[in-house]
Design a protein that fits this description.
By secondary structure, the protein is α+β, with helices and mostly antiparallel strands. Among the domains are: about 40 residues, RNA polymerase-binding protein A (Rubrerythrin, domain 2, Single Sheet), CATH 2.20.28.270; about 35 residues. It is about 25% helix and about 20% strand. It contains two helices and four strands; from the N terminus they run E-E-E-E-H-H. Strands 2-1-4-3 form a four-stranded antiparallel β-sheet, with no helix packed on it.
Length: about 120
Protein backbone atom coordinates (compact mmCIF):
# COMPACT_ATOMS: atom_id res chain seq x y z
CA UNK A 1 0.00 0.00 0.00
CA UNK A 2 2.98 2.24 0.26
CA UNK A 3 3.01 2.65 -3.51
CA UNK A 4 -0.50 4.13 -3.49
CA UNK A 5 -0.87 7.39 -1.63
CA UNK A 6 -3.85 9.62 -1.34
CA UNK A 7 -3.34 13.14 -2.48
CA UNK A 8 -5.38 16.06 -1.24
CA UNK A 9 -5.25 19.76 -1.20
CA UNK A 10 -5.03 22.24 1.60
CA UNK A 11 -8.43 23.21 2.91
CA UNK A 12 -9.38 26.82 2.40
CA UNK A 13 -6.28 27.73 0.47
CA UNK A 14 -7.65 27.45 -3.02
CA UNK A 15 -11.08 27.81 -4.48
CA UNK A 16 -12.36 25.29 -6.99
CA UNK A 17 -14.59 27.90 -8.59
CA UNK A 18 -13.48 30.13 -11.40
CA UNK A 19 -14.64 33.61 -12.37
CA UNK A 20 -15.54 32.39 -15.84
CA UNK A 21 -19.05 33.47 -16.84
CA UNK A 22 -19.51 35.64 -13.76
CA UNK A 23 -20.83 39.17 -14.28
CA UNK A 24 -19.73 41.59 -11.60
CA UNK A 25 -22.00 44.40 -10.44
CA UNK A 26 -21.27 47.83 -11.84
CA UNK A 27 -19.01 49.81 -9.52
CA UNK A 28 -17.49 53.23 -9.16
CA UNK A 29 -14.65 54.55 -7.06
CA UNK A 30 -14.77 57.55 -4.76
CA UNK A 31 -11.67 59.38 -3.55
CA UNK A 32 -11.52 60.76 -0.01
CA UNK A 33 -8.98 63.10 1.58
CA UNK A 34 -8.14 63.04 5.28
CA UNK A 35 -7.12 66.09 7.33
CA UNK A 36 -3.43 65.19 7.09
CA UNK A 37 -3.67 65.34 3.26
CA UNK A 38 -3.55 61.59 2.62
CA UNK A 39 -6.07 60.20 0.15
CA UNK A 40 -7.76 56.83 -0.11
CA UNK A 41 -10.20 55.22 -2.53
CA UNK A 42 -13.38 53.34 -1.71
CA UNK A 43 -15.42 51.28 -4.16
CA UNK A 44 -19.21 51.57 -4.16
CA UNK A 45 -22.01 50.15 -6.27
CA UNK A 46 -22.70 52.29 -9.34
CA UNK A 47 -26.25 53.08 -8.20
CA UNK A 48 -25.33 53.76 -4.54
CA UNK A 49 -25.38 57.24 -3.03
CA UNK A 50 -21.77 58.17 -2.25
CA UNK A 51 -21.36 59.43 1.33
CA UNK A 52 -19.66 62.80 1.80
CA UNK A 53 -17.57 61.54 4.75
CA UNK A 54 -15.88 58.14 5.16
CA UNK A 55 -13.40 56.65 7.61
CA UNK A 56 -10.05 55.52 6.22
CA UNK A 57 -9.61 51.75 6.49
CA UNK A 58 -5.83 52.15 7.03
CA UNK A 59 -5.48 55.09 9.41
CA UNK A 60 -8.97 55.40 10.90
CA UNK A 61 -9.05 59.12 10.09
CA UNK A 62 -12.20 60.67 8.71
CA UNK A 63 -11.91 61.69 5.07
CA UNK A 64 -14.04 64.02 2.99
CA UNK A 65 -15.17 63.24 -0.54
CA UNK A 66 -13.09 64.75 -3.36
CA UNK A 67 -14.84 65.61 -6.64
CA UNK A 68 -13.41 65.14 -10.16
CA UNK A 69 -11.51 68.46 -10.21
CA UNK A 70 -9.77 67.77 -6.88
CA UNK A 71 -11.83 70.05 -4.64
CA UNK A 72 -13.48 68.82 -1.45
CA UNK A 73 -17.24 68.35 -1.66
CA UNK A 74 -19.11 70.62 0.75
CA UNK A 75 -20.66 68.64 3.58
CA UNK A 76 -24.34 69.42 4.10
CA UNK A 77 -25.13 69.57 7.78
CA UNK A 78 -28.74 68.94 8.66
CA UNK A 79 -30.33 71.01 11.39
CA UNK A 80 -30.38 68.87 14.50
CA UNK A 81 -33.27 69.41 16.86
CA UNK A 82 -32.47 69.34 20.54
CA UNK A 83 -33.90 66.20 22.16
CA UNK A 84 -36.91 66.72 24.38
CA UNK A 85 -36.30 65.83 28.00
CA UNK A 86 -38.80 64.42 30.47
CA UNK A 87 -38.98 67.86 32.09
CA UNK A 88 -39.89 69.47 28.73
CA UNK A 89 -42.68 66.95 28.17
CA UNK A 90 -43.95 67.46 31.71
CA UNK A 91 -44.08 71.22 31.23
CA UNK A 92 -46.19 70.68 28.11
CA UNK A 93 -48.87 69.00 30.24
CA UNK A 94 -48.73 71.02 33.49
CA UNK A 95 -47.85 74.51 34.63
CA UNK A 96 -45.08 75.11 37.10
CA UNK A 97 -47.63 76.16 39.76
CA UNK A 98 -49.51 72.85 39.32
CA UNK A 99 -46.26 70.93 39.68
CA UNK A 100 -45.38 72.78 42.89
CA UNK A 101 -48.82 71.98 44.29
CA UNK A 102 -48.49 68.28 43.41
CA UNK A 103 -45.03 68.17 44.98
CA UNK A 104 -46.31 69.64 48.24
CA UNK A 105 -49.22 67.12 48.35
CA UNK A 106 -46.86 64.18 47.84
CA UNK A 107 -44.39 65.48 50.45
CA UNK A 108 -47.18 65.88 53.01
CA UNK A 109 -48.40 62.34 52.27
CA UNK A 110 -44.90 60.90 52.67
CA UNK A 111 -44.29 62.83 55.90
CA UNK A 112 -47.62 61.64 57.32
CA UNK A 113 -46.80 58.03 56.42
CA UNK A 114 -43.33 58.31 57.93
CA UNK A 115 -44.76 59.78 61.12
CA UNK A 116 -47.30 56.93 61.40
CA UNK A 117 -44.53 54.33 61.01
CA UNK A 118 -42.40 55.91 63.75
CA UNK A 119 -45.34 55.88 66.18
CA UNK A 120 -45.92 52.22 65.43
CA UNK A 121 -49.56 52.82 64.45
CA UNK A 122 -49.43 51.50 60.91
CA UNK A 123 -47.33 49.84 58.30
CA UNK A 124 -47.05 50.99 54.76
Amino acid sequence: MADRSLRGMRLGSQSLQSEEGVEFAARRKAVYRAEDGSTFEMTFAADAEIPEVWQSPRTGQEGRLVDEDGALVAVEEAEVKAPRTHWDMLLERRTRAELEELLQERLELLRARRGAQKDGRGAA
